[in-house]
Amino acid sequence: MSGLRKRSAVWNHFEEVEPKKAKCLYCANILSVPAGNCGNLGRHLKNKHPTVPLVTDRQPTQQTPETPQETLVPTSTATESGTSKAPAPGSSSVGLLPPYQPSIRDYAHSTKSMPPRRAELLDEQLVRLIANGYYPFSLVEDEEFKKFVYMLNPGYKLPTRKTLSQSLIPKMCTKQEEKVRHNMENANAVCLTTDGWTSDNNQSYLAVTAHYILSTSEATKLQSNLLGCVEFNERHTSENLTEFLKNIMREWHIENKITAIASDNAANITAAIREGDWRQIPCFAHTLNLCVQSALQHLTPALTKVKSVVEFFKRSSQANEKLVSMQKRLSLPTLKLKQDVATRWNSTYDMLHRFIQTKDAIISTIALIRPDLALSDHDWVVIESVLPILKLFYDVTVEVSGEKNVTLSKVIPLCRIMLSHIKGRLQEQSNIQEIRNIVLHLHKELNQRFGYIESNILNAESTILDPRFKNKGFQDPKLYDRALKDLKLKIRRSSSSKTTTTPAVEAVQSQPGPSNSIWFEFDQEVVRQTPDNPTAAGIVELDKYLHEPLIKRTEDPLKWWHARKNIYPLLFNYIMKRHNLVATSVPCERIFSKAGYTLNERRRRLTTKKVSQLLFISCNSNE
Question: Transmembrane segments in this chain: where (predicted)?
Answer without folding.
Answer: none
